[in-house]
Amino acid sequence: MPRKTMIEAIRDGLDVMMERDKRVVVYGEDVGYFGGVFRCTAGLQAKYGKERCFDAPINESGIVGTAIGMAAYGLRPCVEIQFADYMYPAYDQLTQEASRLRYRSAGDFTCPLVVRMPTGGGIFGGQTHSQSPEALFTHVAGLKVVVPSNPVDAKGLLIAAIEDPDPVIILEPKRLYNGPFDGHHDRPVTSWSKHELGEVPDGHYVVPLGKALIRRPGAAVTVLAYGTMVHVALAAAEETGIDAEVIDLRTLVPLDLDTIVESVKKTGRCVVIHEATMTSGYGAELVTLVQENCFYHLEAPVARVAGWDTPYPHAQEWDYFPGPARVGRALIETMEA
Amino acid sequence: MANSAPLKFHVPEPEVRPGGTPDFSNVVIPEAGSVERPPVDAEPESIRKLAFSIIRVLNRDGEAVGPWAGSLTDEELTAGLRHMMTLRAFDARMQMAQRQGKTSFYMQHLGEEAVSTAFRKALAKGDMNFPTYRQAGLLIADGYPMVDMMNQIFSNERDPLRGRQLPVMYSSREHGFFTISGNLATQFVQAVGWAMASAISKDTRIAAAWIGDGSTAESDFHSALVFASTYKAPIILNVVNNQWAISTFQGIARGGSGTFAARGIGFGIPSLRVDGNDFLAVHAVAKWAAERARSNLGPTLIEYVTYRAGAHSTSDDPSAYRPKTESDAWPLGDPILRLKNHLILRGIWSDERHKQAEAEVMDSVIAAQKEAEGHGTLHSGGKPSVRDIFEGLYEEMPPHLRRQRQQAGV
Ligand SMILES: Cc1ncc(C[n+]2csc(CCOP(=O)(O)OP(=O)(O)O)c2C)c(N)n1
Ligand SMILES: [Mg+2]
Description:
The complex is a heterodimer of chains A (337) and B (410). Chain A is of the alpha/beta class and 337 residues long. Chain A has helices at residues 6-20, 44-48, 60-73, 91-98, 101-104, 134-138, 151-163, 228-240, 257-267, 282-294, 317-320, 324-336, and strands at 24-28, 53-55, 76-80, 114-119, 144-146, 168-173, 213-216, 221-225, 244-248, 251-253, 270-277, 303-307. Chain A has 2 domains: 3-176, Thiamin diphosphate (ThDP)-binding fold, Pyr/PP domains (Rossmann fold); 210-336, Rossmann fold, CATH 3.40.50.920. In chain A, α3 packs parallel to α4 (91-98), α8 crosses α12 and α9 crosses α10. In chain B, α2 (113-120) crosses α8 and α4 (146-154) packs across α11 (351-374). Chain B has 410 residues and is α/β, with parallel strands linked by helices. Chain B has one domain (44-313, 326-379): Rossmann fold (3-Layer(aba) Sandwich). Chain B is globular, with a radius of gyration of 22 Å. Chain B is built from 13 helices and 7 strands. Chain A binds chain B through residues 29-30, 32-34, 37, 50-51, 54-62, 85-86, 88-89, 124-129, 278-279, 308-311, 313-316, 319-320, and chain B through 9, 11, 13, 17, 104-105, 155, 159, 162-167, 169, 181-185, 214-215, 217-220, 245-248, 252-253, 255, 315-316, 320-321, 378, 383-384, 386, 388-390, 393, 400-401, 404, 408. Thiamine diphosphate sits between chains B (134, 182-184, 212-215, 240, 242, 244-246, 308, 312) and A (29, 58, 82, 86). Chain B: Its cofactor is thiamine diphosphate.
């Protein structure tokens, strides 16, 4: 099977769904003729026409607002926000509207909407092309939140999201678009063509929302990660020689608590990592859940590694990004605690 | 139900795509000098047609003609030419520096040099611009040191912004240049707030807001217009219509409104369109608007009709979405060439002096670059401190950041 990048996998997922379901429409800034600044929608306008894949005005609130209207009508819009850093104008529409149509109308109206947005750092994008705002979505009742870490999941989760009857936000780690990235920025980049998770099945398949996956089984400590940080965690385990069990959460809401609890009860230790800023980050939720569910099995405090509580700097990118060294230190400390 | 024919979904398309022949026949270009110059206190109602025409001063032969001519002296004009040439040389060098890996990213102004350089000269010291990433001419025309711009671009040890910002996102209060945000349109409405504050404070300073054609689609643009209109804020609302927003042609943001200037009409804001590649016209219109703002006549909206001759940024390749030769077909020409021809006709410039000036300008840019590179580039040499990640977020660093800074080992 020819291997695909995450970009190609996402494009393939959109293609499969546009082919199967005439209700699927795709739009966003530069998404139509050009195919998106990351090329995730390249070729879709040529294949399905301007009515189903088109350029939007630069107005994120309008993109999401119209998509909500379309979803309520009965279409299956899958829109792109060019960078997660630009979703804020759409935040009102997402948090006050998309999330609540079903609830406030007692099911009279629903919102089967997908919003994709590239997230995270690692590309010297500075403070407005590097953000990880997942916690701003997980905090909102009524939204589902997905963060894939590889091409196979990116396609399967995307298809699941499009078929889901409720609004789903997909944060796509842009540093993973072309290859797995473990935080070692000074080493040659690897591509998905050299990674087994680049082996994306053809056609329709689903990676169900709400199911985590153990990427590396281990006995010593559980690492909870998602997106780019999954690869960082694997590298840290490798480099410290600590037998970590690395769980790729894949979906933050709904969360696969069972897999987490089972693992932590087994290992007795847990490290939670994300790229987003620390304070009130999604890690705080994870730590709380572990504490609530596994307290009597814990042999060490649950540790957190996250981005510093500052905007994402440009020049000091690698002093900001929580790479394998920082994660490795947390693993060692947790083992020694 | 009289009409039950199926509805149609309309998506605007540019005239031409790659492979086609560039065609700007839809851009109606009035004769230079043909558009009236109303008094600054003209009723907005009475000058609506200025939103649908194009004010031009330089004609095909390089003469300055019509009621908008004559706002600049010989010295000011030669200085203006030099500013545009400097900006172009600066762009060329920084574009190359990015290609050489000395920085991560760059955005050039190719073809749009007249807009910001001419505009700056219509403002006074103390006035505040709220620019986008494509108005570095405001700094250059105001004498901001090129070395400091480059230090910012290289994120080096002398970067005035301490490595925190993406290249070209300059900031200089002293030079009337508000700190640039990467989030489009957000600052357009902040500029109105600055202008309102000036009026509240019975100050004499005015503000200038800047936005691209594509970004006028953002809600913040419309927020700015309603506040400016309601409070008659002393502001110039600048829309730089360079025809493209990355790969998206201006028709997607403009929709059915005819022109971007026409957006102002519904708000009762005097709205003018000007040839953005005509240094004299840009200056004259900006001066007219500045006078209105300073005389308590309120906001003016100006649409600069120009063309983004280069790529959107160093991350972009326009040949994927527009014909390669489209830039050559652009009917308003090259702003530098047009001013040069005018100065020659005026008898104060020559091809020879131009060549010489070109060399001088390039020398000064190269000298600045050498100096800046001496302080480091993105991946080598002097760097801003890791402490700069944590400092300056709050006036006083809170304990949690102090703890994190410690964890970072600095
Ligand atoms: C809120 C927001 N949405 C999207 C972007 C991504 N983006 C950066 S520049 C750009 C195009 C802007 O075009 P225009 O306003 O015409 O300005 P120009 O680049 O042509 O000067 C886009 C979509 C952004 N920076 N901010
Ligand atoms: Mg533009």
